[in-house]
């Protein structure tokens, strides 16, 4: 019986093979890959899940997919040209030369990054390279996930109204003309790097850039629909918590990977990151209890919603731009000299509170922050204006009204409610009454409105299992609307519409309440008397009325009105409350 020698593949032959070079430190390489993956998990699925859960139901799919698309698009742009613009050979004091980062020789060779500043005999500056003990492919990966999360943070300011096509164009343009400038200037050997501005792990490059760019883009795109601004409840707080948890754990890689090695600086960064995150959550929760008497989950995750004129959907400006700028400025005050000497490019760096050159460091931090802010305001504005020449930045109003179903033809949940377009292939002909659909939607509306008002749910409503008398009530309501619709046409293009309104305040007579809304819109109590009023236990409220186009617009502008539908669409009578999310 013949035997053959066992052959060990080259990749596992220790330092004798090309895949395990003499300079490779497996521990450093393993940690840097894990750190990069943790940062990637902050985006996918972290922010994808968080965005999908923290927005109104009708925007869940769109918001999550904006984040996922950005992550994918950045990857392709990064390895094709953007990495070398951020960390490659110098082209300008703010930019590297654009070229692919796909060459095998580059990727398997030892990594090289700007590390320290040296002065030649003639006084000119050269940037010495630090060479981490792992391949360049690891660095390309690590820096790519940083770039990707920055674009996803920008998206947080634009959710719920930016055209997806415009977003597809915006991502590569902003990565190319904005992110790469900040990255090269502060990290890749650019002028702020040589000057000694401190940005340990992205306070300026990532957070200030994302916050300012998101805020600026939100200005050019415009605000969300008025009803979305007035009421934008999370559709799934558990998803929001899951995404927040992934963000928290991912910060270990975000800040722990900054030193490019598994060393003591990485250990301190990871520990400090967790302490700061925990303290922030606890302080905000305590403030919620003190001022609002309830511990808000969304408040703990996101922070307060600002009252700015620019509609910043998820508060990216204050959670990233303000926080990042504050972090950079406080570094100029409190940077500890011994720790600075461990990783900073300029010797004897220190905060102002430590004397010496500390005052100059604070000035550098101010200048660096102002440069990042100014660059992002100008470049983001130019990008938005250029895109708007090609495609609209903003979704049309009909899509803003519907949400996911209009933009993607998909919905986050199999519930017929806020944001779903009526589809006869799903719900049957709009000329016929579908009792099961009607009852289901009436039940859903009742339960939801009772829940929003903090009341016990109506036991008489049972989804898809309604008692005969409740079915009869529903059909009577439908019949009333059908009778109104049968009074067909009128002069001036009038048509019959079904109008859903907020339930009347406690103690207010229902009929008078609904008639007052219609009278305010029509400017006449006499005209309003022709409406058919319906109300069920102050849960499902509204009226059916014949309206001209101008009267219809006036009705829609009333703040108590939730939804207006053609009343001939009988099976829709209680399915599309805008207040239901």
Automatic annotation (TrEMBL):
GO terms for cellular component: plasma membrane. Residues 30-308 form the Ammonium transporter AmtB-like domain. It holds the Pfam family Inhibitor_I9. One of its GO terms (molecular function) is ammonium channel activity. Keywords: Membrane, Transmembrane, Transmembrane helix. InterPro entries: Ammonium/urea_transptr, Ammonium_transpt, NH4_transpt_AmtB-like_dom, S8pro/Inhibitor_I9, S8pro/Inhibitor_I9_sf. SUPFAM superfamilies: Ammonium transporter. It is a multi-pass membrane protein. Residues 516-572 form the Inhibitor I9 domain. The chain crosses the membrane at residues 30-52, 64-83, 140-159, 171-198, 204-222, 234-254, 266-292, 313-335, 366-391, 469-489. It is found in: Membrane. Belongs to the ammonia transporter channel (TC 1.A.11.2) family. This is Ammonium transporter. It comes from Oryza rufipogon.
């Amino acid at each position: 019986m013949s035997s053959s020698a066992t052959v060990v593949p080259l990749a596992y032959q220790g330092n004798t093979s090309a895949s395990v070079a003499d300079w490779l430190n497996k521990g450093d390489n393993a940690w840097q890959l894990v750190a990069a993956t943790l940062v990637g998990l902050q985006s996918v699925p972290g922010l994808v899940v968080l965005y999908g859960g923290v927005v109104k139901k009708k925007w869940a799919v769109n918001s999550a997919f904006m984040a996922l698309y950005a992550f994918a698009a950045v990857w392709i742009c990064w390895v094709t040209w953007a990495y070398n613009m951020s960390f490659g050979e110098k082209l300008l004091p703010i930019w590297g030369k654009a070229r692919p980062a796909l060459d095998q020789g580059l990727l398997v060779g030892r990594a090289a990054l700007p590390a320290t500043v040296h002065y030649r005999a003639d006084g000119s500056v050269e940037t010495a390279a630090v060479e981490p003990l792992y391949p360049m492919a690891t660095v390309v990966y690590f820096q790519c996930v940083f770039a990707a999360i920055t674009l996803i943070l920008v998206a947080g300011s634009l959710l719920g109204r930016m055209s997806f096509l415009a977003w597809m164009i915006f991502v590569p343009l902003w990565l190319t003309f904005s992110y790469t400038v900040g990255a090269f200037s502060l990290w890749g050997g650019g002028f702020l790097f040589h000057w000694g501005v401190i940005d340990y792990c992205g306070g300026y490059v990532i957070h200030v850039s994302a916050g300012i760019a998101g805020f600026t883009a939100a200005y050019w795109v415009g605000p969300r629909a008025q009803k979305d601004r007035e009421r934008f409840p999370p559709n799934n707080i558990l998803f929001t918590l899951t995404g927040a948890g992934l963000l928290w754990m991912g910060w270990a890689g975000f800040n722990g990977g900054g030193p490019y090695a598994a060393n003591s600086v990485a250990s301190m960064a990871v520990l400090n990151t967790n302490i700061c995150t925990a303290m922030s959550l606890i302080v905000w929760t305590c403030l919620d209890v003190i001022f609002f008497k309830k511990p808000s989950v969304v408040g703990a995750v996101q922070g307060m919603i600002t009252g700015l004129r620019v509609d910043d959907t998820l508060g990216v400006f204050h959670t990233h731009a303000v926080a990042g700028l504050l972090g950079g400025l406080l570094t100029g005050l409190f940077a500890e000299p011994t720790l600075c000497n461990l990783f900073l490019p300029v010797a004897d760096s220190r905060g102002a509170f430590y004397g010496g050159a500390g005052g100059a460091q604070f000035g550098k931090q101010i200048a660096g922050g102002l440069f990042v802010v100014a660059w992002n305001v100008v470049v983001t504005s130019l990008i938005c204006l250029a895109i708007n020449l090609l495609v609209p930045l903003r979704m049309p109003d009909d899509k803003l009204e519907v949400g996911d179903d209009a933009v993607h033809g998909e919905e986050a949940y199999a519930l017929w409610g806020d944001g779903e377009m009526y589809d006869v292939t799903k719900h049957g002909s709009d000329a016929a009454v579908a009792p099961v659909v009607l009852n289901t939607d009436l039940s859903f509306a009742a339960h939801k409105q009772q829940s929003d008002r903090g009341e016990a749910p109506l036991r008489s409503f049972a989804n898809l299992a309604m008692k005969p008398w409740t079915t009869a009530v529903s059909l009577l309501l439908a019949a009333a609307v059908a009778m109104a619709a049968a009074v067909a046409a009128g002069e001036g293009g009038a048509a019959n519409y079904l109008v859903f309104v907020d339930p009347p305040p406690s103690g207010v007579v229902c009929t008078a309440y609904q008639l007052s809304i219609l009278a305010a819109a029509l400017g006449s109590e006499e005209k309003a008397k022709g409406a058919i009023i319906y109300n069920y236990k102050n849960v499902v409220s509204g009226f059916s009325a014949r309206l001209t186009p101008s009267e219809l617009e006036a009705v829609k502008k009333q703040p108590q009105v939730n939804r207006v539908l053609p009343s001939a669409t009988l099976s829709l009578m209680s399915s599309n409350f805008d207040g239901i999310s």
